[in-house]
TrEMBL record:
Residues 85-98 have a biased composition (Polar residues). Keywords: Signal. Residues 76-98 are annotated as: Disordered. InterPro entries: DUF1161. The keyword Signal applies. Residues 1-21 form the signal peptide. It comes from the Bacteria. Transmembrane segments: none annotated. The keyword Phosphoprotein does not apply. It holds the Pfam family DUF1161. This is DUF1161 domain-containing protein.
């Protein structure tokens, strides 16, 4: 019985690490979609920011993670900083509700 509690405790302690990894995987997925749409990897950045800081991040929110407590913000580098990212670049979580 003690072993079972130890396993549950270890799982609970690992949960924040798993949540961060999921944010990183969502960010990587979005990055891949943007690159596949013809944007060079050096022409943009994706930042993971807390929800309350997404408006101050200075970019376009293209995804979310960690149970919608974090936002992924797209920023265009270079002279075309006002360009918008393609609609298809966001995560599947950001699609319209059906």
């Amino acid at each position: 019985m003690k072993r079972r509690y130890a396993v549950l405790l270890m799982g609970a302690l690992a949960l924040p690490l798993l949540a961060q990894a999921s944010c990183e995987s969502v960010q990587a997925d979005i990055s891949k979609k943007i690159i596949n749409n013809g944007v060079a990897e050096s022409d943009f950045t994706l930042d993971i920011v807390p929800n309350d800081q997404a408006d101050q991040a200075g970019g376009q929110v293209v995804g979310h993670c960690e149970n919608d407590t974090q936002k992924i913000v797209y920023k265009k580098n270079g002279r075309d900083a006002d360009s918008n990212v393609a609609d298809s670049a966001g995560s599947s979580q950001d699609g319209p509700a059906q």
